[in-house]
UniProtKB/TrEMBL annotation:
<keyword id="KW-0489">Methyltransferase</keyword>
<protein>
    <submittedName>
        <fullName>RNA methyltransferase</fullName>
    </submittedName>
</protein>
<dbReference type="InterPro" id="IPR049560">
    <property type="entry name" value="MeTrfase_RsmB-F_NOP2_cat"/>
</dbReference>
<feature type="binding site">
    <location>
        <begin position="100"/>
        <end position="106"/>
    </location>
    <ligand>
        <name>S-adenosyl-L-methionine</name>
    </ligand>
</feature>
<keyword id="KW-0949">S-adenosyl-L-methionine</keyword>
<feature type="binding site">
    <location>
        <position position="169"/>
    </location>
    <ligand>
        <name>S-adenosyl-L-methionine</name>
    </ligand>
</feature>
<dbReference type="Pfam" id="PF01189">
    <property type="entry name" value="Methyltr_RsmB-F"/>
</dbReference>
<dbReference type="GO" id="GO:0008173">
    <property type="term" value="F:RNA methyltransferase activity"/>
</dbReference>
<comment type="similarity">
    <text>Belongs to the class I-like SAM-binding methyltransferase superfamily. RsmB/NOP family.</text>
</comment>
<dbReference type="Pfam" id="PF17126">
    <property type="entry name" value="RsmF_methylt_CI"/>
</dbReference>
<dbReference type="InterPro" id="IPR027391">
    <property type="entry name" value="Nol1_Nop2_Fmu_2"/>
</dbReference>
<dbReference type="Pfam" id="PF17125">
    <property type="entry name" value="Methyltr_RsmF_N"/>
</dbReference>
<keyword id="KW-0808">Transferase</keyword>
<dbReference type="GO" id="GO:0003723">
    <property type="term" value="F:RNA binding"/>
</dbReference>
<keyword id="KW-0963">Cytoplasm</keyword>
<feature type="domain" description="SAM-dependent MTase RsmB/NOP-type">
    <location>
        <begin position="1"/>
        <end position="284"/>
    </location>
</feature>
<dbReference type="InterPro" id="IPR029063">
    <property type="entry name" value="SAM-dependent_MTases_sf"/>
</dbReference>
Length: 437
């Protein structure tokens, strides 16, 4: 790690008193790698080193080139960040907004809880960061998520009082990332926390109108500065008299917020992970249903027929939701969304495939999202074939299969659709994702 700024040392010396030495020593240690398994994938594996008090967390590193990563069975996320999704823990059927979502750690965790019920709007303001968010969401394989590329202010025009839960993992001074990202140390200045706090309050002000009556908000940062944490939460509670703070259980070495015991802090000398702050807030008003104009299907009769033919031949169960096209691409949106036409959309629900001159070609995303028992035809490939396939090669078959579309599976989980022609599987692994394993 880079040398800590003097002003940082002085600030945390004062704040932590006798604990400061242990805190500074922990910042010299290596970061703690970890991952979550994905309960949406039907072929599970057992991994060692479980993180206590979590449903899916494990300590350790999983290669980004492994079949487990590429099929979305695991998502790498350090242990303290895992506590944010856990604090949010949406119930099935909820409408959830992840307001600052890229690259997707909290969103994929939320999707694990929702279990393909309800709706997640996963939003990221930066279009560059949105790309990795979409990739990570697709790999995770959920059918109930839309990715938007918007400011909170614009989102609020569409989603007034809509979300049962909003997770705001705020842009922050990133002190908790000092061990993982040397740049966070380089960028730190004494004045940075106050600047970040101003932005956090502004975004919260824009986001609050999207909270449903009786809804919940989880606010988190990966920094320790009280300005961006307890002070922002206290401001929020003062500004909106219908918001209350909810007590978070202090697990695995979490500590209470400073002067705000309901909130949780994670320091690496106490909690095995990086730095994090979490607060959970509840709108204490009575729940009240709000009706918003709904989105509509826009398929032509020919498109609807081509999709139905494909679905009848290849899928064992009909997919539920709203079908919409964007150009030649067909998407499935979760039921119950308002009309999204005023928003910049990065992923309009589950990408089902593409219409090509009188035929329908299934997408990579669909083959990742569906479990093999929901698909008529699948082919299991071994690890050597997996390595060749992800590098862009075709696969030679020893058995005979009728020509057509098959879901490819590795270790039991989908790796997209591919076409069998004679004794070969043609390569449909997206060019932008190819690599040499
Ligand atoms: C801590 S990161 C989010 C990490 C993410 N939740 C995860 O778990 O993978 C904060 C995000 O806030 C976004 N951001 C920056 N300025 C913003 C703004 N004005 N409104 C909304 N989001 C913003 C950043 O682009 C960044 O992706």
């Amino acid at each position: 790690m880079k040398i800590l700024p003097d002003a940082f040392i002085q600030k945390y010396q004062e704040l932590l008193g006798q604990e400061a030495a242990a805190f500074f020593a922990s910042l010299k240690e290596e970061p703690v790698p970890a991952f979550r398994t994905n309960p949406l994938k039907k072929s599970q594996q057992s991994f060692s080193c479980t993180i206590p008090n979590t449903d899916w967390g494990h300590y350790g590193k999983i290669s980004g080139k492994s079949a487990e990563h590429v099929t979305g069975l695991v998502y790498s996320q350090e242990p303290a960040a895992q506590m944010v999704g856990q604090a949010a823990a949406p119930k099935k059927g909820m409408r959830v907004l992840d307001l600052a979502a890229a690259p997707g750690g909290k969103s994929t965790h939320i999707l694990s809880y929702l279990d393909n019920t309800g709706i997640l709007v996963s939003n990221e303001i930066s279009s560059k960061r949105c790309k990795s968010l979409v990739e990570n969401i697709e790999r995770f394989g959920a059918q109930n998520v839309v990715v938007t590329n918007e400011s909170a202010q614009n989102l609020a025009k569409t989603f007034r009082h809509y979300f049962d839960l909003i997770v705001f993992d705020a842009p922050c001074s990133g002190e908790g990332m000092f061990r993982k990202e040397p740049e966070a140390v380089r960028n730190w200045q004494d004045s940075l926390p106050a600047k970040c706090a101003d932005l956090q309050k502004q975004i919260l002000r824009e986001a609050i109108p999207m909270l449903a009556y009786g809804g919940q908000l989880v606010y988190s940062t990966c920094t320790w500065s009280p300005e961006e944490n307890e002070e922002v939460v206290s401001w929020l509670l003062q500004e909106y008299d219908y918001l209350d703070i909810v007590e978070l259980p202090k697990l695995n070495g979490m500590t209470e917020g400073i002067g705000l015991p309901e909130a949780a802090r994670m320091y690496p000398h106490r909690f095995k992970g990086e730095g994090q702050f979490i607060a959970k807030i509840k709108d204490n008003r009575d729940e009240k249903a709000v009706s918003l104009p709904r989105g509509k299907s826009n398929l032509t009769r020919e498109e609807a027929q081509l999709w139905q033919e494909f679905a009848a031949k290849h899928l064992k169960r009909p997919l539920k939701g709203l079908l919409q096209t964007f150009g030649a691409n067909l998407y499935l949106l979760p039921d119950g969304l308002p009309d999204l036409s005023g928003l910049k959309i990065a992923r309009n629900g589950l990408h089902l495939g593409t219409f090509k001159k009188k035929r329908f070609e299934p997408s990579f995303a669909l083959g990742l999202a569906l479990p093999k028992h929901d698909i008529e035809q699948s082919i299991e490939i071994d690890i050597e074939q997996f390595k060749r396939y992800v590098s862009g090669d075709i696969i030679f078959l020893t058995d005979t299969y009728p020509n057509g579309w098959y879901q490819l599976c590795v270790k039991g989980n989908g790796l997209g659709f591919a076409k069998v022609v004679g004794h070969t599987i043609k390569n449909y692994f997206p060019k932008g994702l190819r690599f040499y394993a």
